[in-house]
UniProtKB/TrEMBL annotation:
Family: Belongs to the peptidase S66 family.
Domain LD-carboxypeptidase N-terminal: start-end pairs: 14-129
Gene3D superfamilies referenced in this protein's UniProt entry, alphabetically: Class I glutamine amidotransferase-like (3.40.50.10740), LD-carboxypeptidase A C-terminal domain-like (3.50.30.60)
Protein's name according to its UniProt entry: LD-carboxypeptidase
Top-level taxonomy: Bacteria, Pseudomonadati, Bacteroidota, Cytophagia, Cytophagales
Species: Hymenobacter lucidus
UniProt keyword terms in alphabetical order: Carboxypeptidase, Hydrolase, Protease, Serine protease
Length: 300
């Protein structure tokens, strides 16, 4: 059973850190204001004002900044600033021994899938949810509230409308997953996370349909689908196609591989690169049911 970090309380200190694409202090201002309104004290890491090409500072600076927040017992949560690319460049140089002594919440999605999976591989829960860069996005109010509820340990449950490709059934297991591209990229690394008996959730953005198929082939060939308890398919935003069309949508591609197995599948789950990106606690034991009326998910 993965370890649950201590829940946040008013007055706790949290850090915003950039592990991937660069951001500015001005872009972080709305997140600082919102977190302060939640009763938290906010520290901006040195990566927030750093820049190295597209990254939030050099690899060494981003590593040093994240390491500092991992090691600081007074920091109770790390909110990742933005996705993009860069987290896997530093993850193997991080020392989690201080984190193990003082576990804390780490929250993010997209490129932060690497951290979500790495922590679950270590036996710790983390949050797949909204990052600081988009705290104030229009239409994202429910997503932000779900992050707050996850951090403070308030009850969370989701109801999702039915989708024509859904496969009915019920499932229970620990949640694992995130960005499909990252999940494939992590295969065979120290951050590769087992899926057997777990509920896998997937999302992605701006991927060519051929690449979605290639990645699903890879997940299937490496056994990631074979023993799933269930599958939640989130947003596959802004799909790309070649001059000669691939001939299937992202959901149809995924359905063709899920059809080889018997686990329940729910499409259209509100997770991914759109304003409705509800927080999911990676490693938390959950149950979901898929019926003609739709999908229900809650934590056990």
């Amino acid at each position: 059973m993965p370890v649950t970090p201590p829940l946040l309380r008013a007055g706790d200190q949290v850090a915003i850190v950039g592990t991937a694409r660069k951001v500015t202090a001005e872009e972080m201002a709305p997140a600082v204001e919102i977190l302060t309104r939640w009763g938290l004290r906010v520290v901006l890491g040195e990566s927030i004002t750093a820049e190295h090409h597209q990254f939030a500072g050099s690899d060494e600076l981003r590593r040093r900044d994240f390491q500092r927040q991992l090691d600081a017992p007074e920091i109770r949560a790390i909110i990742c600033a933005r996705g993009g690319y860069g987290t896997t460049r530093i993850i193997d140089q991080l020392d989690f021994s201080g984190f193990v002594q003082h576990p804390k919440w780490i929250a993010g999605f997209s490129d932060i899938t690497a951290l979500n999976c790495h922590l679950l591989r270590m036996g710790y829960e983390s949050i797949h949810g909204v990052m600081a860069f988009i705290f104030n996005q229009t239409g994202g109010e429910d997503s932000l509230e779900s992050l707050r509820r996850a951090l403070f340990g308030e009850p969370i449950a989701y109801s999702v409308s039915a989708h024509p490709l859904n496969r009915p059934g019920t499932a229970a297991g620990e949640l694992v997953g995130g960005n499909l591209s990252l999940l494939q990229n992590l295969t065979g690394t120290a951050s590769d996370c087992p899926t057997d008996g777990r509920i896998l959730f997937l999302e992605d953005v701006a991927e060519y349909l051929m690449n979605v198929d290639r990645m699903m082939v890879h997940l299937d060939r490496t056994g990631k689908l074979r023993n799933l308890a269930g599958l939640l398919v989130g947003h596959f935003t802004d799909p790309q196609d070649n001059a000669i069309p691939f001939g299937q949508t992202s959901y149809e591609i995924i359905a063709s591989y899920a059809a080889k197995y018997q686990f329940p599948v729910a499409y259209g789950f509100p997770v991914g690169h759109e304003p409705r990106n509800m927080a999911l606690i990676c490693g938390r034991n959950a149950q979901f049911s898929v019926t003609a009326a739709g999908t229900e998910l809650s934590y056990l």
